[in-house]
Automatic annotation (TrEMBL):
This is Transcriptional activator. It comes from Bradyrhizobium cosmicum. Residues 110-194 form the ChrR-like cupin domain. InterPro entries: Anti-sigma_ChrR, Anti_sigma_zinc_sf, ChrR-like_cupin_dom, RmlC-like_jellyroll, RmlC_Cupin_sf, Znf_put. Residues 10-39 form the Putative zinc-finger domain. Transmembrane segments: none annotated. Gene3D superfamilies: Anti-sigma factor, zinc-finger domain, Jelly Rolls.
Length: 215
């Protein structure tokens, strides 16, 4: 596997120091697991953050802090939420190890040649993660983002103005990026995506179908 596109340094630093929302963290983790260069970078950032912590002056704890923590641990755990949908079966794909441990929602078709399966992440606050299948040769509508879009290719490929993205490649999009990806002709493209905000579709067709495309 040749990886040519990586997360921006700032995103990798936030990943290494545990500051990303759960869905964003998952997409970066899937890339980092396959990319030795980003693993080295993230490892170095973790090391730096650990060293900075060691140099921080210790703060005195309250006398009853230990007892308070133990009391908290003894508290009954909340019952599982009834409104969380039951997980559906793992998609029939050769997924990376990290994803095989996830819970998946129901797969659905969002547009011709485009289907989506949400990943259930109870701690995600702003971002949501899903698997996205696109048909070979599909041309996505010209779009930009009101939030951010993190993508890691799992299978197949797509291309847009910034180049070709194959397995392991990472693509970062935000409000400044306005692109029209085209899926490679060789096979369906499977991507792991984390999104905040909404897609903003452009052009007449985009405006016509955007009420029906819900990602
Ligand atoms: Zn990388």
């Amino acid at each position: 596997m040749t990886i040519s596109h990586h997360p921006p340094d700032e995103l990798l630093a936030d990943f290494a120091t545990g500051r990303l929302d759960e869905a964003d963290h998952l997409v970066v983790a899937v890339h980092v697991a396959q990319c030795p260069a980003c693993r080295r970078f993230a490892g170095a950032m973790e090391h730096l953050a650990g060293a900075a912590l060691e140099e921080t002056a210790p703060v005195a704890m309250k006398a009853d802090a230990f007892a308070a923590i133990m009391a908290k641990l003894d508290e009954p755990q909340p019952a599982p939420r009834a409104d969380v949908p039951p997980p559906s079966a793992l998609p029939d794909e050769d997924l990376p190890e990290i994803l095989r441990r996830c819970r998946f929602g129901k797969q659905r078709r969002v547009a011709p040649g485009l289907k989506l399966q949400p990943i259930i992440l109870p701690s995600a606050k702003q971002s949501r993660a899903f698997l996205l299948w696109s048909a070979p040769g599909a041309r996505m509508l010209q779009h930009s983002h009101s939030g951010t879009e993190l993508t890691c290719v799992l299978k197949g490929s797509f291309s847009h103005e910034a180049g070709r993205y194959g397995p392991g490649d990472f693509d970062f999009g935000d409000g400044d990026v306005d692109h029209q990806p085209v899926v490679g002709p060789e096979e369906p493209c499977l991507c792991l995506v984390a999104m905040t905000g909404d897609l903003e579709l452009h052009g007449l067709l985009g405006r016509l179908i955007s009420p029906f495309v819900r990602l």
